[in-house]
Specification:
Elements lengths: L1 H21 L3 E2 L20 E5 L2 E4 H13 L10 H24 L6 H9 L13 H12 L3 H23 L5 H12 L1 E10 L11 H11 L8 E10 H6 L5 H10 L5 E2 L2 E10 L5 H19 L4 H8 L11 E6 L6 H7 L11 E2 L3 E11 L2 E2 L2 H34 L4 H8 L2 E8 L12 H8 L10 E3 L2 E11 L10 H31 L2 H8 L4 E2 L30 E7 L2 E11 L3 H6 L1 H18 L1
Antiparallel strand pairs: 1-2, 2-3, 4-15, 4-17, 5-12, 5-14, 6-11, 7-8, 7-10, 9-10, 13-14, 16-17
Helix pairs in contact: 2-3, 3-6, 6-20, 7-20, 10-14, 14-15, 17-18
């Protein structure tokens, strides 16, 4: 299937290229200020890199997008990587503007229901299919994404619009019958083979060790044993966990925080609601009448004493609440989008149900489960929450004070790391020969630390580097340049690689001997028996199949589909393995079977294509 999409990719690109011309897309080739140096100077001049529909994409846009994406990474990249990722970021930003412009040009719209459906597909907001509630939803969006609910949902709207444009693009591409048939054969052609795998490891015991030959091997391949540059350094570590753990919060501080932030703990009037909803989006005529009849019949059953939860499970078309008996959780008046629904929710008494209410989503019946008046939370109710917040604030201040002290100590003793560490009770560590990518004692592997160490000259002290929960200062004491070691330094490694090379040479010789014999006898099983090699049989394999105990080869099994039963192939090489094979079965769908499945495959291709575009 994916092979088909790769063939279609050029068509998609051609179509998008035409779209660029239609909306007057022009590309400029300026360098982004600071992209090669990693500068994050926000005062740098903004350079226009390209335009779409008259709107520029600037160097600042690219830098901000890089920073935004970088914040989402568990291990952020250094600013110097901006130069590597800038071209792709620029391409993505331009494509987004192109799609937005085209969506506006052809008048595409996104409904509230489409946004709701997209949210329902997110396990973060609907874990197990259940909505986390309006208050929690608002909290997640604001705290984790740094957006308002309105801004977040506007982003979703833009994503859906762009997806619609992509759908239009892919719908315009129609594969020929020949391409569809090729895809069907790609999926359904099958082959079985008998095979022999000869592995270099089989000859390990045949390798004879010889000190003189090992030395000669080392002389021929000594560049492979070259030792990279190593940096001798010492560093001071400040454990920020220790700083945080030293923080204490008094009851008086908790009380003072509560008094300063009383409005924060004022609860608005809110209601606990349940609903039964029948969708009417895009309905008209008889379909709309059926929906109205369904909701009115449900209301009649409720007025006769019907169980609200049971009727919601049976009749409600809201996927977020139907399975829960219509339960919507707690909400304030401001969080209810439909004015008529908000009015009814806050005028009904607990246990009462509304008449049918119309909204842009459909027809609703709501039930007020509980009604809570506005009130002030007591200190006792929020004491634990405040304790956490005050401790976090004090911890942040304490950590900043410590960092300021480190900065002052470095300015006082810019090249005396021992004095800095002693004044601040930092832990001193050493590394006699550090290589980039190797773990540092106490710190582990740290790309940020490697970047700082690589930038130092002998005697220099770095700025503070964040490594997990710790901060570190590094001082470079010496540089050991790259060098080729003496034989005795790497003797054990030379012996190991000598064995590998000799076993590989034996594999080459044995494979050539077997190839000659196979050609002579014309039968894989007979030739293998003479050499005491094991013959195995594969299962049925598609074009994308593989022999697990051999590995991958560029033209296998594709080449086997071009052979007749009984013909043999090889030698094929995968790593330190060599394989010979003989075709035993070949299954190819008939022309009638191919034609009968043509429409099915075409629909499958379209569906996969749309999914691929949506994910992109």
């Amino acid at each position: 299937m994916f092979q088909f999409f790769r063939r279609q990719d050029n068509l998609v690109r051609w179509f998008l290229g035409s779209l660029l011309v239609l909306i007057c897309f022009s590309m400029l080739t300026y360098l982004i200020p600071g992209m090669n140096t990693g500068s994050d100077d926000s005062s740098a001049t903004s350079t226009t890199l390209g335009k779409a529909c008259g709107e520029p994409v600037t160097s600042v846009d690219v830098q901000q997008q890089f920073e935004s994406l970088n914040k989402q990474q568990q291990r952020p990249l250094p600013a110097t990587f901006l130069g590597i990722y800038a071209p792709q970021i620029l391409k993505n930003l331009m494509e987004e503007k192109i799609l937005d412009c085209e969506a506006h040009r052809i008048g595409l719209q996104v409904t509230a229901e489409e946004i709701a459906d997209r949210l329902r597909s997110s396990p973060g907001f609907f874990p197990g299919g259940e909505f986390i509630g309006a208050e929690r939803y608002k909290e997640v969006v604001e705290q984790r994404m740094g957006l308002t609910v309105e801004g977040f949902e506007d982003q979703i709207r833009q994503e859906i619009l762009r997806g619609k444009v992509r759908h239009i693009v892919t719908d315009a591409i129609e594969a020929s019958d020949r391409e569809i048939d090729a895809e069907y054969h790609h999926q359904n052609n099958k082959v079985k083979v008998d095979y022999v795998v000869v592995k270099a490891d089989q000859f390990n015991n045949d390798v004879k060790l010889d000190p003189e030959r090992e030395k000669a091997f080392f002389e021929r391949t000594k560049e492979n044993f070259r030792m990279p540059e190593r940096r001798q350094l010492k560093y001071a570590v400040l454990d920020m966990n220790r700083v945080r753990e030293s923080i204490n919060v008094t009851p008086e501080e908790v009380k003072a925080y509560y008094d300063r932030n009383r409005d924060t703990y004022r609860v608005k009037e809110r209601v606990h609601l349940a609903q039964i909803m029948v969708k009417t989006t895009d309905l008209s005529g008889d379909k709309l009448k059926e929906a109205e009849k369904k909701i009115n019949d449900t209301l009649a059953q409720l007025k006769k004493g019907g169980d609200f939860a049971a009727l919601a499970k049976a009749n409600s078309e809201d996927p977020g609440s139907a399975d829960k008996g219509g339960d919507l959780g707690w909400t304030t008046k401001e969080q209810i989008a439909a004015p008529d629904m908000a009015k009814a929710a806050f005028s009904l008494q607990p246990g009462q149900i509304s008449d049918v209410i119309k909204s842009s989503f459909g027809l609703h019946i709501i039930k007020v489960v509980e009604h809570e008046q506005a009130h002030q939370k007591s200190l006792a109710e929020v004491q634990a929450e405040i304790l956490t917040k005050v401790k976090a604030e004090k911890s942040e201040r304490s950590q900043q004070q410590m960092l300021d002290q480190v900065d002052a100590a470095i300015r006082k003793n810019p090249k005396d790391l021992d004095a800095v560490a002693a004044s601040l009770k930092m832990v001193m560590m050493t590394d006699a020969g550090h290589q980039r990518g190797a773990p540092l004692p106490l710190l582990g592997v740290s790309p940020a630390a490697d970047d700082a160490i690589s930038a130092l000259k002998v005697g220099e002290v770095s700025g503070l580097v964040t490594v997990g929960e710790q901060k570190a200062l590094f001082q470079l004491t010496a540089i050991q340049p790259p060098r080729i070691p003496e034989f005795e330094e790497v003797k054990a490694r030379v012996e190991t690689e000598f064995k590998v090379a000799e076993a590989n040479n034996l594999l080459t010789d044995r494979a050539q001997e077997f190839a000659t014999r196979l050609k002579a006898v014309g039968d894989l099983t007979k030739a293998a028996k003479e050499k005491k090699y094991e013959v195995k049989s594969s299962t049925e394999m598609p074009v994308t199949g593989r022999i697990e105990d051999f590995g991958n080869a560029a033209d296998f099994p594709a080449q086997a589909f071009k052979m007749k039963v009984g013909e043999y192939g090889g030698p094929l090489t995968s790593g330190r393995n060599t394989m010979f094979y003989q075709v035993t079965e070949l299954t190819v769908p008939t022309a009638a079977d191919t034609a009968a499945n043509r429409d099915k495959v075409r629909q499958q291709v379209r569906s996969e294509e749309h999914t691929s575009e949506l994910q992109s």
